[in-house]
Known about the structure:
- The structure is a homodimer of 223-residue chains.
- With 223 residues, the first copy, chain A, is of the alpha/beta class.
- Chain A contains eight helices and nine strands.
- Chain A has helices at 15-33, 41-48, 52-59, 74-85, 100-107, 144-151, 165-174, 201-212; strands spanning 38-39, 72-73, 91-96, 116-123, 132-133, 136-140, 155-158, 179-182, 195-198.
- Chain A starts with 14 loop residues before the first helix and ends in an 11-residue tail after the last helix.
Amino acid sequence: MNKTNHTEERTILPEPTIRRLPWYLSYVRMLDNMNIEYVSSTQISNELNVQSSQIAKDLSYLNIRGKTRIGYEVHSLVKELENFLGFNRQHDAVVIGTGSLGTALMQDHGLVNYGLNIVAGFDVRGEVIGQTVDGVPVYDISELEAWQREHGVSIAILTVPVERAQDVADLAIASGMTALWNFTPYRIKAPEDVVIANTSIYAHLAIIYNRMHNTIIDTNKQQ
Amino acid sequence: MNKTNHTEERTILPEPTIRRLPWYLSYVRMLDNMNIEYVSSTQISNELNVQSSQIAKDLSYLNIRGKTRIGYEVHSLVKELENFLGFNRQHDAVVIGTGSLGTALMQDHGLVNYGLNIVAGFDVRGEVIGQTVDGVPVYDISELEAWQREHGVSIAILTVPVERAQDVADLAIASGMTALWNFTPYRIKAPEDVVIANTSIYAHLAIIYNRMHNTIIDTNKQQ
């Protein structure tokens, strides 16, 4: 029932590498749009402030080799990165909590370029249930389990108020979802085999405030 | 002219500590709302899956002491955390790029609870310039420098298309902004004294996809 299953073997990457690969991708996508044919790791290094030995190491996980003196073929590198990162495959997801952030994600057409296809929203508020956001239907959260039995989506995006985070996560997991993208500042507890990615924008604010009033920055820790 | 300057001394914290403190805050805020008076580091530990020795260490940066056998006074801990993290002070910011994500941030009333006050938006699109989003005016990006001379805001939130990220960052910095909250997947180059926080939601997608197809998770690396 899972529409996003794949049969190919995939590599477990160190998380810092996974964080850097999308930087390389957005840079080489730009070069590709400018019809630039080749790029060296030195160029990527100068542009992105990452050591070129690190770039070579990160890219060694991919099925691509640079040519001596010329570098990587830009278009192939874009395709390889997209493929490797899973951005060229469709991953269906639901948004739970269709407030301002949830709605923004449902309207963000950029996400499709990163392989994310939001197919439904869920909420508790009567005024939004039965409506659509950018063509995507919003259902009553009480329908989640039944809906999920039919659709078998793997990814739940949690954009609920913080005090609902754990309940909604439990419900999503009980419904068979295996990956939670948590936008609340709450640290969700989940079984080991559930993937959780925390995107707590508020934690980043704390970092900004702390660094602003000191101006000592550890750029290696940026993220 | 900077409306968010403070005179107090502040401590440079390790970034992992700054990332955990907002977790503690959202948890103890919930307890406070439930009128619970005391919480121990063991309780916080069980709830948030962080070792209690780590919690005690993180909280030792704050001006608060737990009582033996009773723990921390919840309401005081909320206030101390808010104060320490800067969430109880107003930090003015502008949003550059009022697309779906920028607009969502302008409409997110939750940010005020974390000390962020968005006072203006900037864009290049004629149809949004001169409009307001939730009462906040949107100006032409060409007016940024002049506007900034008058208002002296420190924080610029970058929600522009990726290919505009560096240009807009350069403009914000030239205008005197000292902290950039970068939501684009582009790795911005900036002088050392400019604070940059990268909230690249796309990088988190790559992590989800990679982990989903493997289900080996390093929970220490969650974030």
